[in-house]
Write a structure and sequence with these properties.
It is built from five helices and four strands; from the N terminus they run ααααββαββ. It has about 190 residues and is of the alpha+beta class. The protein has two domains: about 70 residues, no CATH class; about 100 residues, Ribosomal protein S6/Translation elongation factor EF1B (Alpha-Beta Plaits, 2-Layer Sandwich). Strands 1-2-4-3 form a four-stranded antiparallel β-sheet. The radius of gyration is 42 Å and the shape is elongated. Strand 3 and strand 4 form a beta hairpin.
């Protein structure tokens, strides 16, 4: 018998065996048997592959141990949120520059003749100094609005504590009696 005849005989035998099992189990049973054989093959491969799984587990344990030691050696941040905000404030040495900026912005917006008053407010919290600047004058509304916008954009540590406007009853008079109170926050020098 040649190799070709053996191959053909093997195929016929296999077909006969499959048909015999199909007749006994039916098509669903034959499919279930095939799936069971496939599951056994996969399980055998998974059991055989436990060496790489153990190596992966060892690698993960080493990484976890390294992260734990890095966490214990890192200095713990002891700064509270209030202290973090305090550190972001400019120092009290910058106060003259901030006052000069307020004056220059007032002049830039046409509020040249506006009288200004300054006073250092009493301490409310440790480490913060507050300077109140009050500006009052008769001008139209628009320069005041532009001044507030520029102040808050250029001095993030400033707040508008009070803004009040009053208008006369005379028609055609666009002058507004205005009063603007600004508070600058600075970090107190030790």
């Amino acid at each position: 018998m040649s190799g070709q005849h053996l191959a053909d005989a093997g195929r016929r035998l296999m077909r006969r065996q499959v048909w015999r099992w199909r007749d006994r189990l039916g098509t669903p049973g034959l499919l279930a048997l095939g799936l069971a054989v496939l599951a056994l093959a996969v399980a055998a491969g998974a059991v055989h592959d436990t060496g790489s799984l153990q190596a992966e587990e060892a690698r993960l344990r080493d990484a976890l141990a390294a992260a734990a030691t890095a966490r214990t050696t890192r200095p713990v941040a002891t700064q509270t949120p209030a202290q973090a905000v305090l550190q972001r404030l400019p120092s009290a040495a910058q106060r003259p520059d901030d006052v000069a900026l307020v004056l220059s912005l007032a002049r830039a917006h046409g509020l040249i003749a506006a009288p200004m008053q300054y006073r250092l407010l009493e301490r409310r919290s440790e480490g913060i100094e507050r300077l109140e600047i009050t500006i009052g004058a008769d001008h139209a509304y628009e320069p005041w609005r532009a001044l507030m916008i520029d102040l808050l954009n250029r001095l993030p540590h400033a707040t508008v504590a009070q803004a009040s406007w009053s208008r006369s009853e005379v028609e055609g008079d666009d002058k507004t009696q205005a009063r603007l109170r600004i508070v600058l926050y600075h970090r107190r020098q030790p």
